[in-house]
């Protein structure tokens, strides 16, 4: 018997305060009928409703459309597509137990120290652990995001994690120089950082903006071509609508989170 599985992406508490809009910035009210939903003990045939971007088990208002699930099973994705757990061995047992208890079996880590990943690969992707893919250090500009996270927010901070937890690339010459080291870490995919690329020139020359910018957007198409040539997909960190557009026109494969402002 073929069992159909429906993957639901459940947005957490923020969704109730800020409903997800689509299709012309309109939030749609839907009835999800005849699905098999897990109640904590067994799968039960019941209806749910999508109202203002949140799932509800009861709704007496108008419904725009009914989706007949025809007895298909509704389950979580069993995956965390943006997690920085399993970056190093510290706390591994606790992190593993937490993810397994939550039903997370697959993890995508979009930034982790390259120097520590070899030890982690020996612990994950085993029969009784989670499966993890790693980006290793992401690509950003000098003093760009996430330098302030790993090495501190001040301009005088000691760059302990540079070209390890993050790679700084300011021009094509640096890309040529550092690319062999990037791929030598055997990343499963490439992470790039865009951070208000519409103001890159001004932010990257402002000493008070450490961590407040990312790659020069003009470099991104070249980076994407190099990554694809090496058989690697590219995931982009974006913070603005302009970043989103740059990522799309440059040919990236994935946006790691939505822009932090509305798309115009």
TrEMBL record:
Assigned keywords, A-Z: Signal
Cited InterPro entries: Metal-dep_hydrolase_composite, Metal_Hydrolase, Metallo-dep_Hydrolase
Any one GO molecular-function label of the UniProt entry: hydrolase activity, acting on carbon-nitrogen (but not peptide) bonds
Signal peptide boundaries: 1-16
Domain of life: Bacteria
Organism: Eiseniibacteriota bacterium
Protein name in the entry: Amidohydrolase-related domain-containing protein
């Amino acid at each position: 018997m073929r069992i159909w599985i429906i993957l639901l992406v459940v947005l957490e508490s923020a969704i109730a305060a800020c409903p997800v809009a689509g299709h012309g910035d309109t939030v749609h009210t839907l009835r999800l009928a005849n699905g098999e939903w897990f109640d904590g003990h067994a799968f039960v045939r019941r209806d749910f409703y999508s109202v203002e971007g949140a799932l509800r088990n009861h709704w007496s208002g108008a419904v725009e459309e009914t989706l007949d699930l025809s007895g298909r099973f509704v389950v979580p994705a069993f995956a965390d597509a943006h997690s920085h757990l399993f970056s190093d061995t510290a706390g591994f047992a606790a992190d593993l137990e937490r993810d397994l208890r939550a039903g997370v079996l697959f993890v995508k880590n979009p930034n982790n120290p390259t120097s520590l990943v070899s030890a982690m690969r020996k612990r994950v992707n085993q029969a009784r652990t989670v499966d993890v893919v790693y980006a290793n250090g992401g690509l950003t500009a000098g003093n760009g995001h996430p330098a302030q996270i790993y090495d501190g927010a001040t301009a005088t901070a000691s760059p302990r994690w540079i070209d390890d937890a993050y790679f700084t690339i300011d021009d094509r010459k640096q890309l040529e120089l550092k690319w062999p080291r990037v791929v030598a870490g055997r990343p499963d995919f490439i992470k790039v950082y865009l951070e208000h690329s519409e103001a890159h020139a001004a932010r990257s020359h402002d000493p008070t903006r450490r961590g407040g910018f990312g790659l020069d957007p003009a470099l991104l198409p070249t980076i994407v071509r190099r990554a694809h040539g090496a058989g690697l997909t590219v995931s982009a960190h974006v913070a603005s609508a302009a970043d989103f557009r740059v990522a799309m026109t440059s040919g990236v494969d994935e946006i790691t989170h939505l822009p932090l402002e509305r798309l115009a």
